[in-house]
Design a protein that fits this description.
Growth Hormone, Chain: A
């Protein structure tokens, strides 16, 4: 078995006691070693990273979410009639095909991320998927739409897992969820306003064949390409490759990362390591949890305006009322992230979010008053959206070495694509307008998440206790590292 990833890591997380003996840092002590530095210097450096990393990545992912989910706005605005998407399951097919290349190409893209560089890869694919979005403005039939959705999925495949991999490489474990949440809630809030933006765009007067729903893709596609060009100058690379920080700042960040989890310096990726990490059962549990969280996230992104329209709201109301639940979800998600990082609990908050989603879906399905059902949309979207960064932080906290981060983030986010496929299939046109089977599938997925978190909590807790007794070797060769639960 290849142990090359273990040797350079363990040496970074030991320190000498006053008697000269080697003491291994436990989880709290590793985290607190940042206080060896001037607190003002640490705070200034972290803020510098936050501004440079989170704003541009959050803006880019916002437009990514809008570009992949704006079919719902276009459908309400006339695409449904013009391209005959109301025939059979054509709309579901158009939403579903995006996820096939999205899932397949996430892992290869994450492998290329280290080789090509975060700036080069992420900016390039943003420009290319923007071009695919813009091209949708000129489709004349639903088959062309489906083809361009495949292209869109191919280019977007590497972006989200690449961002999670990059962010988890820069921050210590108990800063991770807050940063992933800030990145995600920015995109959630902006993408939640996409329905209002879409309403504004369809008011633009006709120009040749471009009219009504086509403006959505034309304007947003052009904006995506422009943002991709701007990102060439703004995205920063991995800590060991960055030229953004000063030498002193980089050394401080690298030291903190090594003392937190021992993987500031990337290990050498080998086929054996990749296969080993791909067969880790814990990674697949995190992936299933992420699948269960993206199912309702994508379902409401694609179907909320349709659900509201089916409940009796006008076209304008259905588009505009789709935004407030996402604003509430952004606030809720940030509060959950702060609480999770402060209390150092991951699984607990994943379960809380799952319960909130279950309650919301139950209200949507069975409340008699449409305004009460609309309140249910708030709860369902809040719980589902909050679990996206919660599950990612849960996974990131329990993943060390760059090779495993690359493999794990690709698998977990790839499973999120499976959740998107499920959302496209369980919310069927035949079940319009209440979508009861889809809501029950969503509820079942949340209950499955609670079971998975219970399994992870039991096994991770038991493994930690065995580590404390010296009954098992260190996780990935890192003395003192413990699973987060």
């Amino acid at each position: 078995m290849d142990h090359t990833e273990d040797k350079p890591i363990s040496s970074h997380i030991e320190h000498k006691t006053g008697s000269g003996e080697v003491a291994h840092l436990d989880d709290y002590e590793r985290h607190s070693t940042e206080h060896e530095y001037d607190p003002a210097f640490v705070k200034r450096t972290i803020r510098k990273l936050d501004i440079r990393l989170l704003i541009i990545l959050g803006a880019m992912y916002s437009i990514a979410l809008i570009d992949r989910t704006n079919l719902s706005s276009a459908r309400v605005a006339g695409m449904n009639v013009e391209l005959d998407l109301n025939v059979g399951e054509r709309y579901s097919i158009a939403t579903l095909v995006f996820f096939v290349p999205y899932i397949i190409f996430e892992f290869p893209s994450n492998i290329l991320l280290r080789k090509i560089g975060a700036r080069n890869l992420l900016s390039s694919i943003t420009i290319l998927w923007g071009a695919a979005t813009l091209a949708i403005a000129f489709v004349k039939n639903w088959q062309s739409l489906v083809g361009l959705r495949v292209v869109l999925g191919f280019f977007e495949a590497g972006f989200f897992p690449g961002c999670v991999y990059l962010l988890s490489s820069w921050y210590t474990r108990w800063r991770t969820q807050t940063r992933i949440s800030l990145f995600y809630l920015m995109s959630m809030f902006i993408s939640g306003l996409s329905q209002i933006l879409a309403y504004g765009l369809i008011q633009i007067p006709r120009a040749g064949m471009v009219h009504t729903w086509r403006w959505i893709f034309l304007v947003l596609g052009a904006f995506t390409m422009a943002l991709g060009v701007l990102s060439i100058f703004l995205i920063i690379d991995f800590p060991d490759k960055n030229t953004f920080l000063t030498a002193e700042e980089t050394e401080m960040v690298m030291t903190m990362l090594d003392k937190d989890r021992g993987d500031a310096t990337p290990d050498v990726m080998t086929r054996g390591k990749v296969i080993k990490h791909m067969t880790c059962w814990r990674t697949w549990c995190y992936g299933l949890c992420f699948m269960n969280s993206t199912l309702p996230s994508y379902a409401f992104a694609y179907f909320l305006p349709v659900i509201l329209a089916g409940q009796g709201y006008s076209q304008v109301a259905a588009l505009c009322l789709s935004a407030p639940p996402y604003a509430a979800a952004a606030i809720y998600t940030f509060c959950i992230a702060i609480s999770s990082d402060k209390l150092r609990k991951r699984g607990l908050f994943v379960c809380v979010n799952a319960v909130v989603t279950v309650v919301g879906c139950s209200i949507i399905g069975y409340a008699k008053n449409k305004d009460v059902r609309y309140f249910g949309c708030f709860l369902a979207i809040m719980g589902a959206q909050a679990n996206v960064p919660s599950v990612l932080a849960f996974q990131a906290n329990n993943t060390v070495t760059h090779t495993k981060k690359s493999v794990s983030s690709a698998i977990v986010i790839g499973m999120g694509g499976v959740g998107g496929i499920m959302a496209s299939t369980v919310y069927r046109q035949a079940d319009f307008p209440r979508y009861i089977p889809g809501l029950w599938a969503t509820i079942g997925a949340q209950l499955f998440t609670i079971v998975l978190v219970g399994i992870l909590t039991v096994f991770n807790g038991r493994f930690n206790r065995r580590l404390d007794k010296g009954e098992v070797p260190p996780i990935q060769g890192i003395e003192g590292f413990r699973y987060s639960i």
